[in-house]
């Protein structure tokens, strides 16, 4: 197969993107990656230099795609490698640049080795080989394939990459039917707490609705972006996505973007931005103009669960971290990332660290599972 590097997601025609077997994953899509790159959220000037790796067969037909970024720092990729650069320095080596496969600012597990539906056998393996060759050519310290699904993790491990466990809290449909059925699985005390939280929001007189990306006009996007931006600034963080990212991505993704909105009279006072594919809902950003107890849980969790149940989605992944999700029925699940380390000495050091970390994270997941609110946790 012929290997080529693309300078951006939009360099690959939408017709080719549609041939890739992604399960309609919103983050591994031309609208999401293209809007992030074109809006400046992810670009060379912010150390997200696109080097998307394309494989084509003898007839020029697309066989596979590997989204790749050359990075000079780790902000926004959720690689959890904050302490690794000093280790490289102690060995007289540079940690950056590194190569990263993943969605910018999005710690959401999904497909990463994107093969066409009619791709020949071995396409994913060929993508891995091409990525390793590029990493060596660029003298990158590592290639990090972040938040991979389990089946791809196995393939990457067989190719010599190190797997790293993470823990997130996801809602899983256990055949609840509707939100009332979901609450019936809770212990009595926990069930009453959720009902109190929801009642407080309902009694505040807010109107709450869900809109898809192509149902939001420019004026409403300005309010939603203000909510998103102010939340980041309030906590001393950088709001990476500009307004035009959301407007562009929302229009292109359509029903693959879902925003839960709270209205006070005719004014949008809070919003939670989510995405979806064929199987799951993904919570990403939230913000509010008002301080109302329970509103965050209502928009970011309960409305998402109701939406998932109504639309036949088996999972709701509300984002990384957040042990407060446990009491609301979100279960600890493992996530996986894969790392190829160029230097043999540091590969051994990282492998030892990941083995010890893995044991601690398994204990953490088991401990948090004991605090689930279900009657038979």
- Residue windows where pLDDT falls under 50 for at least 5 positions: none
Percent of residues in helices? 25-40%
Quaternary structure classification? single chain
Assign an overall shape: globular
Q: What is the overall number of helices?
A: 11
- For the biggest β-sheet, the strand order reads 2-5-6-8-15-9-14-13-12-11-10
Return the structural class. alpha+beta
**Cα-to-Cα separation, first versus last residue:** 50 Å
Descriptive report:
This protein has 377 residues and is α+β, with helices and mostly antiparallel strands. 36% of the residues lie in helices and 24% in strands. The chain contains eleven helices and 15 strands. It has helices at residues 14-17, 30-38, 84-90, 123-137, 150-158, 179-184, 188-203, 218-234, 243-253, 295-310, 344-369; strands spanning 2-6, 49-50, 52-56, 62-66, 69-71, 98-101, 114-115, 142-148, 162-172, 207-212, 257-264, 267-276, 280-288, 315-317, 331-341. The strands form two sheets. Strands 2-5-6-8-15-9-14-13-12-11-10 form an eleven-stranded mixed sheet, sandwiched between helices. Strand 13 (280-288), helix 10 and strand 14 (315-317) form a beta-alpha-beta unit. Helix 2 (30-38) runs antiparallel to helix 9 (243-253). The longest helix has 26 residues, at 344-369. The chain is globular, with a radius of gyration of 21 Å. The protein starts with a strand and ends in an 8-residue tail after the last helix. The mean pLDDT is 96.
């Amino acid at each position: 197969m012929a290997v080529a590097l693309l300078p951006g997601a939009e360099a690959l025609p939408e017709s080719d993107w549609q041939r890739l077997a992604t399960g309609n994953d919103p983050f591994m899509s031309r609208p999401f990656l293209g809007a992030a790159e074109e809006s400046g959220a992810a670009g060379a000037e912010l150390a997200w230099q696109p080097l998307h790796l394309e494989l084509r067969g003898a007839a020029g037909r697309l066989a596979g795609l590997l989204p790749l970024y050359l990075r000079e720092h780790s902000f926004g990729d959720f690689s959890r490698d904050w302490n690794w650069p000093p280790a490289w320095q102690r060995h007289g080596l540079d940690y950056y640049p590194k190569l990263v496969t993943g969605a910018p600012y999005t710690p959401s597990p999904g497909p990463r080795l994107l093969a066409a539906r009619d791709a020949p056998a071995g396409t994913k393996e060929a993508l891995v080989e091409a990525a390793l060759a590029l990493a060596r050519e660029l003298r990158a310290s590592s290639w990090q394939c972040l938040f991979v699904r389990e089946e791809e993790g196995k393939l990457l491990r067989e190719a010599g990459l190190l797997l790293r466990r993470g823990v997130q809290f996801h809602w899983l449909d256990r055949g609840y039917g509707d939100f009332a059925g979901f609450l019936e699985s809770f212990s009595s005390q926990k069930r009453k707490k959720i009902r109190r939280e929801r009642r407080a929001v309902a009694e505040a007189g807010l109107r709450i609705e869900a809109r898809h990306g192509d149902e939001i006009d420019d004026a409403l996007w300005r309010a939603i972006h203000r909510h998103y931006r102010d939340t980041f600034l309030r906590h001393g963080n950088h709001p990476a996505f500009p307004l035009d990212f959301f407007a562009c991505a929302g229009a292109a993704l359509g029903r693959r973007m879902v925003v839960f909105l709270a209205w006070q009279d005719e004014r949008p006072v809070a919003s939670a931005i989510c995405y979806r594919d064929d199987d799951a809902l993904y919570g990403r950003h939230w913000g509010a103009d008002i301080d109302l107890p329970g509103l965050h849980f209502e928009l970011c969790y309960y409305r998402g669960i109701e939406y998932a149940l109504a639309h036949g989605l088996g999972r709701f992944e509300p984002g990384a971290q957040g042990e407060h999700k446990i009491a609301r029925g979100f279960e600890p699940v493992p996530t996986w990332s894969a790392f190829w380390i160029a230097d043999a000495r540091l590969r051994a050091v990282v492998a030892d660290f990941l083995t010890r970390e893995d044991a601690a994270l398994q204990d953490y997941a088991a401990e948090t599972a004991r605090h689930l609110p279900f009657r038979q946790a």
